[in-house]
Amino acid sequence: MAESRCHIEVVPILPLHGHVALRRRFAASVERGALPGSLLIHGPRGVGKQRLALWLGQLLLCRAAGDAPCGECQSCRYAADLVHPDLRWFFPRPRLTEGDADVDDVLGDYSDAIAERAKHGGLYVPPSGSEGIFVSTVRAIVHLASYTPSLGTRKVIVVGDAERMVPQEGSEFAANAFLKLLEEPPQDTTIVLTSSEPGSLLPTIRSRVVAVRAAPLPESDLRGWLADPVVQKGLAELDSLPSGMEARIHMASGKPGALLGGAAARQAQEAATALLAALDAGRAERVRAVFALGGSKARGFFMEVLDALTVQLRDRAREAAASSKTERAAGAARGIDAVERAKERAAGNVNPQLIGAALLKELRELGA
Ligand SMILES: [Zn+2]
């Protein structure tokens, strides 16, 4: 299967911190050959469920025997670099095209998205509201499950934020194939779903998986995570975070991912504020605000910015209406519609900066 993968510097992802009891439980099941074929790891957002699922995948594929991945064999190294062909990771992504993307399109898109995550030690911000696991992805998962493993004797498929699987019209066939896969995975395949909203999972999915709960990390594990140089570097880029260790521990409250998500949301707020401020400013300001939206890799972030824009324009419309500035209120309301149209375009494969520039022009013309 052809995959487009640009050559970038690969660094191993962050080691898993915490979840010691669950790790022991998983390792014991693997050793007894009693690990269920389909699992659901659920628990609060940001506790590291997907990282734990990847750890379990690495353990299943490791060539050495033991209660943890050896970290040295070829399989472990590929897994730690997120390039193992038999350890597949899926999560919400922007919808690829208006029509149906084929399996190669989907795998190419994930290959790029995973390479981007790998650059940051496997750290990532939570998906934006418009990202999902669309039917083309479900088809790719079903397709991969039917393949013979490339390197060893097993394969593992991790599906993060599984509640974001989007039922689509005409997708019944793929949905049924996926349910059948969960119910009876091939002998050599383990499927691990994760979800922080297991109540939103389709009951037909929930009833086919064995659920285990991942709890928030104890403070000692959180300290270990925060002390990791890769984490420190990643968090240093998010300058809106509190700088002290104690303040960060307090803010995370057992969910390391909460630090990433909170900071990303604040950055999106700031980018939206800058875009609105640039409406009445000079051309240089507008160019700067658009540039800050990032290139095609930043689509998730861009979606957050658009969501923040909607909220800020709504506030603007409300304030204008309250002080009887009806023309300004109407302009802001028209602006909200323009942002909605931009969201539709952004769900496709268009560069955020292009959409941002067009949106800014439109908002000026609409008097938003
Ligand atoms: Zn190994």
User: Approximately how much beta-strand content do the residues carry?
Assistant: 5-15%
Number of strands: 5
The average pLDDT score comes to: 88
The spatial strand order of the largest sheet comes to 2-3-4-1-5
Name the helicity range.
40-55%
- Rg, nearest Å: 22 Å
Question: Could you explain how this protein is built, in words?
Answer:
The structure is a single chain. With 368 residues, the protein is an alpha/beta fold. The chain has helices at residues 20-32, 49-61, 74-80, 103-119, 135-145, 172-183, 203-206, 219-227, 229-237, 245-252, 256-279, 283-291, 299-322, 326-347, 352-366; strands at 38-42, 87-90, 155-159, 189-195, 210-213. It is built from 15 helices and five strands. The protein is globular. 40% of the residues are buried. The site of zinc ion (ZN) has 9 residues, from helix 3.
